[in-house]
Amino acid sequence: MLSFKKGAEHEVHRQLNRHSDIPLYKQIEQIIKEKILQGEWPAGTKIPSQRKLASMFQVNRSTVTAALDELTAQGLLEGNRGGGTKVANQIWSELTAGPPLDWTSYVRSGIHRPNSMTVQEINRQEFKEGVIRLGTGELAPELLPYQQMEKILRGAASERLMLGYEEPKGNRFTREVLAAHLSRKGVRA
Predict the structure, then answer these.
(1) Which of 49, 10, 6, 13 has the alpha carbon at shortest distance from 30?
(2) Whole-number Cα distances in Å, 78 to 3, 38, 43, 49, 116
């Protein structure tokens, strides 16, 4: 188990597997990448020097250099001459580089079945007489006051009615007619 302090106050919880087919530099690359992607080493964190990492992992410095070069090429690390190596500020491309989620497989693996058959049945039922179409958000035709609206609009002069807004509150004449109508019903508007 490896640990290191500021500039290296982070712990490395995995040892290298020297019997693995995966090269040591790739294992080191993966350990550091996990620290970055899991947020343990946020953007701007200065990582230990190559010599220090080589000592901690008990490998040759060139092995560490190869791992750091790979991480730099992936955009996870950036180095400054004399400033050390830091976690790059632009790691979103790496975080989003994975394949898109397969939502269909998640739905199939859950306890609820896909609802496409249910949705199709609802769509068929909406057109039956006596069924209110909730899916479209439309009012039932019998709820609209067609006769009252027709009477109000007939009494209005055609040059006063417009299809667009004259001002943010709407057409002034239409508002006055509606206010008069509501006044007769005891509503002050």
Answers:
(1) 13
(2) 22, 18, 10, 13, 49
**Contact, 20 vs 59, CB < 8 A?**
no
- For the chain, what is the total number of helices (H) and then of strands (E)? 8, 4
In DSSP notation, 143-180 reads: GS-HHHHHHHHHHS-GGG--SS-SSTT--HHHHHHHHH
Pairing between strand 84-87 and 77-80? antiparallel
Phi first, then psi: what are they for 139, rounded to 5°? -75, 155
The number of angstroms, rounded, from the C-alpha of 128 to the middle of its chain's C-alpha atoms is 39
Whether 29 and 22 have beta carbons less than 8 Å apart is answered as no
Q: What confidence tier does 166 reach under pLDDT thresholds 50, 70, 90?
A: confident
pLDDT digits (tens, 9 = 90+) for 46-72: 999 899 999 999 999 999 999 999 999
Q: Where is 147: in which H helix or E strand?
A: helix 146-155
Tokens 């975080």 -> residue: 95
List CB contacts of 90: < 8 A, sequence separation 6 or more.
75
Query: Is the pTM higher than 0.70?
Result: no
Task: Tokens for 98, please give them.
Answer: 């994975």
Residue 85, phi then psi, degrees to nearest 5? -105, 135
Q: How many CA atoms lie within 13 A of 143 on its CB side?
A: 5
Instruction: Give the C-alpha separation, 42 to 21, whole Å.
Output: 30
